[in-house]
Write a structure and sequence with these properties.
This protein is an all-alpha fold. The chain has 14 helices and no strands. 76% of the residues lie in helices and 0% in strands. InterPro entries: MFS, MFS_trans_sf.
Amino acid sequence: MLALPGMAPLLGVSLLARLAITAAGMALTLYAVLGLHLGYAAAGAVPAALTAGLALGGPLLGRLIDRRGLRTALLVTVVLQAGFWLAVPALRYPVLLGAAFLAGLLMVPAQAVTRQAVAAMTTGAQRRPAFALESVQGEVSYLVGPAAVILAAATLSPAAMAWGVGAAIVLGGAIIAALDPPLRAPGEAVGDVAADRPARRAWLGPAMIAALVMAFGTTMLLGGIDLAIVATLQQAGQVSWASVVVAVCGLASVTGGLCYGALARPLPTWLLLGLLGAATVVAGLAPGWRWLCVAVVGTGLLTAPTLATVADTVSRLAPAGVRGEATGLHSSAMSAGVALGAPIVGWAIDAGTPATGFATAGLAGVAAALAGFLLSRRARQPLGEGTGVAPDPEPCVVGADADG
């Protein structure tokens, strides 16, 4: 995949931007605690505002990319991000909340752009391993980004830490704009963008809704796992080992993504998500950190493959003229899942035990897999002339040659 023209530079700069974007919530939390001397509850509201903006901003930025082009969207977001992160040390708490929401609403769309470019730069047979590699990139950003910010907070001033994160976001967005990766395959290039946009009802059907539901369910599951891990180890008096368990889960996900990308045949998205949910429920039975390290390997191995198949499905179902909006909806569904996962799992832990938290996260994934399966069974995608949507002979099974 890295030998494809333009792929290695795209994934390299995208990783820089995604590391910083992933770390942005932690950076704002630590700034509120260390710089504004707030409690953790008040500090947590700042990244929550950022996440709410991310969830709402995905489709808006996607439409902007579809209508005005990639560089226009990146220019708008890069300028706003530069202004926000430069101003963070001067903002009072109430203003910081509103500004964080706006920053999330107009965050540099590195993830969405990378997925659109991957879809444009690969053929049907190449897309599954390419999206697997993109999902591995996402796992690496979650492993490294927040940890790097915590290290920076221990060695730098709160303002310098915030400026460093902002600089990485701005630099990543600017380099992506300079690279200007293609967002459409050569055969999809058109002259009239407005005429190329099919009606929303023509593409936002049961199959696409199934993919979005499964994206939401996957990240809702993942959003609650860390909290369940900490609660389990706290109950066992081993909370200091939580970072080790989380690292094992992340490394297993990277391994799973690389292995899945090398497979000759794909698996249905709903099956991968269902297995991911079941593995998460089982992880709640682990009594201590050693067994929990073993248990989360199953969850980790299935994480990147599930995320990759969902991204691949969205790219295949979206016509070229609305791929930005569809990818934005996908990003919004994932952000909403992350935002809801932790509080719902936290409520389950408070009402029961840490194992209840694992069960809640896992069953949310199983429920999303079942809903995705039932919706995709209803899906009928006729091959319309010029729509860019190929029929899906097996609902939500990716990896078939979409070019034929």
